[in-house]
Amino acid sequence: MRLWLFKSEPDVFSWDDLVAKGAAGEEWDGVRSYQARNFMREMRLGDRGFFYHSNIGKEIVGIVEVIAEAHPDSTAADPKWECVDVRAVEKLPQGVSLATIKADPQFAAMMLVTHSRLSVQPVTQDEWDAVLALSRAA
C-alpha cells in the first residue's frame, strides 16, 4: 500500500463533503497537473491518503482510501486527464496545520513543504506516521 496526500479547497469540496458521499466516495476530479495525474495513475485500490484543506485552514484533517484506480475524469473534455475515486475513512483527532509541518525539521523533505502547489502527492511512511502522531498528541 502506498500513501498519498490529496488537497482540496474546503469551500469547493471539504472533508465533510467527502464524508457525506459515504461508501460510494467521489471522483478526485478537476486535476489539471500532469505530475498530479501521473501520481494518480500509480495509485492502487486500498492505498491511503491524507485529506488536506488548502487555502482555508491549511491543515491535514482526515484519511481517505482509493476505491477506484485511474480512469477518465468526467469533468474533462480531453481524455488525457484521469482521476481516482476516494472515500473518507477517518477524521483525524486533531488537524495538523501546514505551519506545524513547516516548523518541524522531520518534514523538511515532505512534498507538502517542497512542492506546495501540487494537489496530489506521495507521502512517505515516516511522514505518515509523524503526522498521525502529531494529530493524536494535540
The CATH superfamily is known as: ph1033 like domains
Instruction: Round the Cα radius of gyration to an integer and report it.
Output: 14 Å
Strand content: 25-35%
User: How many structural units, i.e. domains?
Assistant: 1
Which CATH first-tier class would you pick? Alpha Beta
From the helix content, strand content and strand pairing, which structural class follows?
A: alpha+beta
Structure overview:
The protein is globular. It is of the alpha+beta class and 138 residues long. The protein contains 5 helices and 6 strands. 33% of the residues are buried. The chain has a single domain, classed as ph1033 like domains (ph1033 like fold). It starts with a strand and ends with a helix. Strands 2-5-4-3-1-6 form a 6-stranded mixed beta sheet. The model has no long low-confidence stretch (mean pLDDT 97).
List the SSEs and their pairings.
Layout: E1 3-8, H1 15-20, E2 26-27, H2 34-42, E3 48-53, E4 59-72, E5 82-97, H3 98-103, H4 111-114, E6 120-123, H5 125-137
Parallel strand pairs: 1-3
Antiparallel strand pairs: 1-6, 2-5, 3-4, 4-5
List keywords for this structure.
single chain, ph1033 like fold, 6-stranded mixed sheet, 5 helices, 6 strands
Give a nutshell description of this structure.
With 138 residues, this protein is α+β, with helices and mostly antiparallel strands. The protein has five helices and six strands; from the N terminus they run E-H-E-H-E-E-E-H-H-E-H.
